[in-house]
Amino acid sequence: MDPAWLKSKRKEFKSWMTDEDRRMGLDRAITAYRAAREYALATLPELEQIRKEVRKIKERSIESMQDLVKGAMENIELVHGHAYLAKDAKGARRIFSKLVGEDKLVVKSKSLVSDEILLNELLEEQGNRVYETDLGEFIIQLRKEKPTHLLNPAVHVPKEEVAKTFSKLVGRRVGADIPTLVGVAREFLRDKFCTADVGITGANVVAANTGTLFVIENEGNARFVSNAPPVHICVTGIDKVVPTLSDAFKVVQVLPPYATGILMSAYVSMITSPSRTADIEKTLVYGAHGPKELHVIFMDNGRTEMFKDPVFREALYCLRCGGCMYECPVYRVLGGSFGHNYFGGIGIIWSAFTAGEENAAAAADACTKCAKCKETCPVDIDVPKMVEHLKQRLIRKGYLAPKHEEIKKSILKKGHPFGQ
Ligand code: SF4
């Protein structure tokens, strides 16, 4: 009989392998992404050098991660922001509970770190209304599904299915025409931005020397979320901090072409403090047209543990572009079941450290170690090496499929894997 960690995952694998709609959605997205990225890399040949520089920046940053976070926090506080360090998901939930309170309207832009702490569930339990505003996240939220890609959470949902979901939302028939579907989301979410009490975003990179948060996006929703409500809360990982603004700009140049195959994102917001003005008698006042309060939560949640192991440390260099997933043959078949809260090969490592090894064991078994992800990674992360390292660790802890257990016993007893 399969152990619990394997049983539930096998079911999930099977449901992905047999769901034609989800496979069709994934196939369409992968084809479109590959063509776009090829064009972007050919158009920006200088990226080859910049991505190598970014690898070096990440190596240096992770080496002094704790000091950089301390510096970023001090600089945020200096300009009237509030900075917090959450040791784990529980700690982050406590901070959010206090900051958001009850009965609030909350708008959110996409944040993988918020998924680590099951933030939406927490806020809703406290009687808040929470709206995801990234189109993909919004679709997933309405369909009560799990995201399936680091950057494109609804990558598996074909337009026909989105049309059904939106028709239900607005109470009229919406056609499966993509611009129309985008228009429905725009219309529905418009007033939520301006009436929300709290806006929650992540940050793609943080510059320690100024405490500046960089939020990279295309839809314009993160700008609204971080700007329209009176309170902005940003939650990000301690691995996202780099020493200087110039370092952060390098990351900003690499992310969009590798993440979505575009030359540059439509918007890059740089946020250093709550809104402020000194226009009357040069007297500085915080709280002008933008948020009056800025709170930044830095999450550890397994990252320091990752740092301690020289093999897993490399996972902290990940920029979360998600490009590797489009090249992974296993992700193409298993989609969102190939991982837990993070997906693909790199997602197996991140899931193990942020959500527990039992949630990553079955996916680690499914990786073929083909190294397609390594070839495509802009910062040259050796994902298969880490997956192998994790697998060995998991086996030592007893995460072994029954068939593998049988083979192991046979080798130990008879010197070969073939039973009788
Ligand atoms: S090594 Fe594993 S995670 Fe990477 S592309 Fe191959 S199957 Fe996917």
Account of the protein in words:
Helices cover 53% and strands 12% of the residues. The model has no long low-confidence stretch (mean pLDDT 94). With 420 residues, the chain is an alpha/beta fold. Helix 16 (344-355) crosses helix 19 (383-396). The strands form 3 sheets. It has a 6-stranded parallel sheet, with helices on both faces. Strands 8-5-6-9 form a 4-stranded mixed sheet, sandwiched between helices. The protein has a two-stranded antiparallel ribbon with strand order 10-11. The chain folds into 2 domains: 4-42 and 322-413, no CATH class; 45-304, 3-Layer(aba) Sandwich (Rossmann fold), CATH 3.40.50.10420. Strand 10 (276-277) and strand 11 (285-286) form a beta hairpin. The chain has helices at residues 4-17, 20-43, 47-63, 65-78, 89-100, 112-116, 119-125, 135-142, 159-170, 178-195, 221-227, 245-260, 303-308, 323-327, 329-334, 344-355, 361-366, 372-376, 383-396, 402-414; strands at residues 82-86, 105-108, 129-132, 198-201, 205-207, 212-217, 231-237, 241-242, 267-271, 276-277, 285-286, 293-299.
Give a short summary of the structure:
The protein is an alpha/beta fold. 53% of the residues lie in helices and 12% in strands.
Distance between the termini: 21 Å
Percent helix, as a range, is: 40-55%
Just name the CATH architecture of the largest domain: 3-Layer(aba) Sandwich
Name the average pLDDT. Answer: 94
Q: Regarding CATH, which class of the largest domain?
A: Alpha Beta
Task: Give the distinct bound molecules.
Answer: iron/sulfur cluster
Largest sheet descriptor: 6 strands, parallel
Determine the CATH superfamily of the largest domain.
NagB/RpiA/CoA transferase-like
- Low-confidence parts, pLDDT < 50 over ≥5 residues? none
